[in-house]
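Hi R.,

Here's the chain you asked about this morning:
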Amino acid sequence: MSELIARVVPLALGAAFSPTVLVVELLILSAPKRALARAVSYVGGALVILVGLTVIGLLVTNHGTGADSAVNPVTRAIDGTLGFILLILALQTVVRALTTDRHRSPSADDEEHSSRFTSLPASFVFGIVMMSSNFSTILLYLPALREINAAPVGVDGQAVAVVVLFLIVVTPIISPIVVRVIAPEPSSRWFASLHRFITRHQTQIAVAVEVIFGVYLLLKAVRG
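And here is the predicted structure, written out as tokens:
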């Protein structure tokens, strides 16, 4: 069981880094009207995608896995493909950052999008859209689910691993709401500072996650 957790946690930590999803949530929480309700609705939409991804991922990765999945050529090919895609995403992120209008505020697009979704149903749908397009999280979440499926730890052990994976991934997007409920006044200042930091460094964060875990999956595919 400890060996399974050790394999799942690094992938879960990588999947938990969702700068764009978090930036939009912080923008919503900084809004003057119905900020908390809209943020809860937005995060609810994101969680729907994660729950659905968990169910689908467990069903899909259940095929072709087993105790010898580490040396399974199909499994290694999947790891290699996902690693390659992550590296392509990193390159795309760098190119997009270099070609983006430098006179435009880095968060201008996020502010423009978030301002359109002022109702609770619209915020919920926006959360679905943002998490669905969060490819770096998805490309790390699926290999983690495959590791769980392949582990010979029994159903109870796999259930615990899935819960650990899910909680690690959702903690960064649930935490701002918890903080807002506990400390509504100071949280607005904290969120503003955090939003500026993430916006300023979101390209570097995204590239670092994509490169590190892209290389990790490629090495995993090569070494078996």
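One quick note: The CA atoms of residues 94 and 207 lie 7 Å apart.

Cheers,
M.
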